[in-house]
Design a protein that fits this description.
The complex is a heterodimer of chains A (about 180) and B (about 220). Chain A is an alpha+beta fold and about 180 residues long. In chain A, helix 3 (about 75-90) packs parallel to helix 5 and helix 4 runs antiparallel to helix 5. Chain A is about 35% helix and about 10% strand. Chain A has a three-stranded antiparallel beta sheet, with helices on one face. Chain A has a single domain (about 10-90, about 110-170), classed as 3-Layer(aba) Sandwich (Ribosomal Protein L9, domain 1), CATH 3.40.5. Chain B has about 220 residues and is mainly alpha-helical. Chain B has two domains: about 5-165, Methane Monooxygenase Hydroxylase, Chain G, domain 1 (Up-down Bundle); about 165-220, Ribosomal Protein L9, domain 1, CATH 3.40.5. Chain B has helices at about 5-10, 15-35, 45-65, 70-100, 105-110, 110-115, 120-140, 205-215, and strands at about 170-175, 185, 195, 200-205, 220. Chain B is flat. Classes of the chains: A alpha+beta (about 180), B mainly alpha (about 220). Chain B: Keywords: DNA replication, Nucleus. Chain B: The GINS complex plays an essential role in the initiation of DNA replication. Chain B: It comes from Stereocaulon virgatum. Chain B: It holds the Pfam family SLD5_C. Chain B: Belongs to the GINS4/SLD5 family.
Amino acid sequence: MALPLPAGLTPPETAFLCEMELVTIIPRQRLEKLNLLGGPTPPFAPPHRTATPLWLALLLKRQRRANILPPPWLSPRSLSSVLDLEKSTASFSPPPALPPHTTTSPPFLPSATAGAPPDALPYHWLELGEMLLEAASDDIPEPDNVRRLMRDLREVRMAKMRAGVGVLEGGREVNLNGVGGGWR
Amino acid sequence: MDIDDILAEVDGYTIPQETRDLQDLTRAWVTERSAPEILPWPAALMERVLERIRKQIELIEDQTSTADPKSSFKLIILQTELERFKFLIRSFLRSRLAKIDAYTLHHLTDPPTRARLSESEIQYATAHSTLLHRHYYSSFLGQFPEALRRLDDRQGGVDMVEGPDLEKAVFVRGLGGPGGEAVEVEVEGTDIGFRMGRGDVWVVRWGAVRGAVGRGEAELI
């Protein structure tokens, strides 16, 4: 009955966490407010945009009841500018700033909605990007370019991670600002 | 009322209690999955969430019986969410059980650790250790000299009761102090310290940040 997994989240658990991220959708049909366990959903009234958790957005998308509006950072322009930045420094590109006066943190920040900053990769960028590319590639402009840039970014950051592991042997604390959730 | 409530009011917008509970439960789950030791049982939070789940199940059962085809999609959404909540709770409880299983006697005999367990967890741990003790006794302990039969001998400077390794490395994100400022983290017993700002991600030993995590100045990720 006890959990047979080692400490630390496994990739499916990280994906589960990522599915709580808020994304913007454009509903295709009306749906009244629903009282979910995690708080009420906003009523859907096309063509008004609404922010919902990713799991709900994917469910609606699969049933063709909504379109997903990809976050601004999931575009070839933003990704290639982040990639250029990553290539030019030894550190990771900075994550989006946490809003002041709240202890809320990913996955409950609006860092993947249509209003998210275009130049900063949020904590679950890789998982979120891959899930959206898989389930909603027709909603993403230039999906093949996006996929290629994400792969390049992943390579660059992986190389940095590998280089950084050596620091751990010093027994001191290590800073990993900007690193996403799929990296442990 | 804690600091979040006050700040939320200042911000002029409030997050519904249900949403806040989901956030707290998620954080508790991630922390429990990542931290080497067991964390305080969130009694009030669990009570609220379990009560809500019970009501939601009732509601779903009720609506399924009326079987209106129009509302079936709504039911699918409700059920999907319910399953997600159930997964969260189950994984949370199971990872606590895994820790209790691994160090049962430690969880029963170390007062600060024991205080972090819920009532049913204490019951479980007691039953677990009684069974184990009885089994050991009948299979081999009974043949030993009386003085060597104990499983919790602390004499001779060696403690038989094993506890979790508090010096394991964890991933942690700084949440800032009450005003959102960076907090000082000092490693007990050394002169090593560092500043952890809001949103900073670090790899550190659990022992160094357990205080900060307990105060809500940092979270495990």
